[in-house]
């Protein structure tokens, strides 16, 4: 901090409802600052059309329905898997069963490592 000077800072008072009411008016002419850069805006045009990609469907050998979209811009594969389950499928007379089961699995699985689960051949990877 050597060589620095103390500067006084004056804080502006904040006053409620002191803002000038803004009214949009295209008839008002503003004097534009002279500049060597072109700051003009292009005229408004129609919105560009939205082209949604086509969705293909297939059914796997085990009856699982598969939907896909093909895009070749990048060499990337992305997928998501949706499985109906959870509390939406709980029996109405036994609400909370899915939550209770998930909590029990989470608590019990803490004592086992990923390698243990793989050795039991219950899952292929962690």
Which descriptor suits the 3D outline?
extended
Derived structural class: alpha+beta
Which radius of gyration do the C-alpha atoms yield?
32 Å
Question: What's the number of helices?
Answer: 2
Give average pLDDT, whole number. 81
Q: Please give the largest β-sheet.
A: 2 strands, antiparallel
Classify the helix fraction into a percent range: 10-25%
Extended strand count = 2
Distance between the termini: 52 Å
Question: Topology, please?
Answer:
Layout: E1 55-59, E2 65-69, H1 97-109, H2 114-119
Antiparallel strand pairs: 1-2
Describe the structure.
The chain has a two-stranded antiparallel sheet. The chain starts with 54 loop residues before the first strand and ends in a 7-residue tail after the last helix. The protein is extended and about 75 Å long. By secondary structure, it is of the alpha+beta class. The protein has helices spanning 97-109, 114-119; strands at 55-59, 65-69. The protein has a domain at 55-81 and 90-119. The mean pLDDT is 81.
List its salient traits.
126 residues, alpha+beta, 15% helix
Write a concise synopsis of the structure shown:
This protein has 126 residues and is of the alpha+beta class. It has 2 helices and 2 strands; from the N terminus they run E-E-H-H. Strands 1-2 form a two-stranded antiparallel ribbon.
